[in-house]
Amino acid sequence: MSASKLTELSLAEARDGLRRKDFTSVELTQEHIAAMEAGRKLNAVILETPAKALDMAKTSDTKLSTGDGGALEGLPIGVKDLFCTKGVRTTACSKILGDFTPPYESTVTQNLWDAGAVHLGKLNNDEFAMGSSNETSCFGPVNNPWRNKDKETNLVPGGSSGGSSASVAAHIGVAATATDTGGSIRQPAAFTGTVGLKPTYGRCSRWGIVAFASSLDQAGPITRTVRDSAIMLGAMAGHDAKDTTSIDAPVPDYEAALGADLKGKKVGIPKEYRIDGMSGEIEALWQQGIDWLKDAGAEIVDVSLPHTKYALPAYYIIAPAEASSNLARYDGVRYGTRLEGENLIDMYEKTRGAGFGAEVRRRIMIGTYVLSAGYYDAYYLKALKVRRLISDDFKLAFEKCDVLLTPATPSSAFAIGENLDDPLAMYMNDVFTVTVNLAGLPGISVPAGLDAQGLPLGLQLIGQPFGEEALLGMAEKIEQAAGFDARPDVWWE
Amino acid sequence: MSVDDKTVHRIARLARIAVPEEEIASLGTELNTIIGFIEQLSEVNTDDILPMTAVVETEIKRREDAVTDGGYVHDVTANAPASDDDYFAVPKVVE
Description:
The complex is a heterodimer of chains A (493) and B (95).
Chain A: H1 11-19, H2 25-38, E1 45-48, H3 50-65, E2 76-80, H4 107-114, E3 118-123, H5 162-169, E4 175-180, H6 186-192, E5 195-198, E6 218-223, H7 226-236, E7 266-270, H8 280-295, E8 299-303, H9 311-326, H10 344-355, H11 358-371, H12 376-397, E9 403-407, H13 423-427, H14 434-439, E10 443-450, E11 456-462, H15 468-482
Parallel strand pairs in A: 2-3, 2-4, 7-8, 7-9
Antiparallel strand pairs in A: 1-3, 4-6, 5-6, 5-10, 9-11, 10-11
Helix pairs in contact in A: 2-3, 5-6, 7-15, 9-11, 9-12
Chain B: H1 5-14, H2 24-38, H3 73-77, E1 83-84, E2 87-88
Antiparallel strand pairs in B: 1-2
């Protein structure tokens, strides 16, 4: 097979090719390493691990030659730098972690290596996953492989999993791991024309993933097809005694759930997602999605999620509050860089002042404020109550339907620097996605079309708890109807 | 609600984050904008609503109170910026 072909394959195609012995994992991995090196202008990979990848590929080839091998045997993937990888530098893209090299492996990545996956490298993200544009990383911004019609301006790949989305869109890896606290898998997937799946809270172990907001964080895959997402989730998910919030329930065969008939399935359309100032393009795309699912046999029902408007403000209390607590561990004592001070407190303050970037400092300060004496009830407790109302809205809606269909983002990808000075404008990127995290539900973003600038747009499906199978089945129907095969022009090589 | 310079100093101190004096005013403005945004929640009637602390209702898991793993003291201190004899080293706190 010619040099350019192997990186063209989807995860499922590459898997099947390896099993048929059309090519070896070493060949497949070498071509992806070449794509990774040629794609350095994207700044998607912040630590390349080619030697490790080739070692793992050789092991996979031995297994494949005897017909053994796991679900992902020999497939080269990238790992978001939020996942601790044993012996491989892990920084959460923050200066404060310095050259931290974990002596342990996160459960999700261990599951992937146990399934035979090959580790290509660590992927860029917003610092501690706080951001919607991948501009807050201490390694600098990631460039979206897509450019708009002027072809000059670099666009953001979304965040916080921007390295994951850009690397998959640029065919650097067959898939990538990602995490989603308020939309950090689905929004970057929408901005790069890829598929992003945020599983039900508890479906994947959080053990060994650098914590942002523990009651919201969940790991999931970014891939190029819905089938690939199903395969990746199957390998990532599972009960883990090391994470008490991980759910002790069997992992279904997600790939086998694809191709299900939509007849009799009900798709809810939440009227509150038709927000003020919504662009005509987003509205048209949403209608298109409704028509596609109707044509596939689903019934469309109108539903109401009355507290939607309060999801973002509740999120921007709960997430910073949990972050301020989780990030208290970065004190210059146990890991990372240290700035010396006159005494212990001075050392903490100098280390944290210099080690955290502006957005992380801002969120820790908000979290500290809403948890401080006199404000705890007014902000934090209030937000937890509103969170229940948001969750109850979904429970009521799901009495009428199986899944919900919404836009994934309010717009397509924007230019690097465009929203940096306006935190609220940046936060609005997650307006369609945060509700899902607050309620702990699964959600998926599927590429559904291009806007007038030639940039990808995504549709989001929201499922019931542990309803990933129905979600993937429905997502596949949108994928088939959309026939999304647009590709960014390769400008980065 | 308006965050003044004194409050910014107090939050920075509580958060153990050194903020340069010249950034205090602009940080106060940013915090005010965000706090103004989150204050929308006061419109919502939450009387008799229980706070939601977990999205998946589960029983608290219990395990036997026994050592299952351990003995990695060198691994634990391996990433420390300063350590001595497998202890974390910090500036003197007791004279």
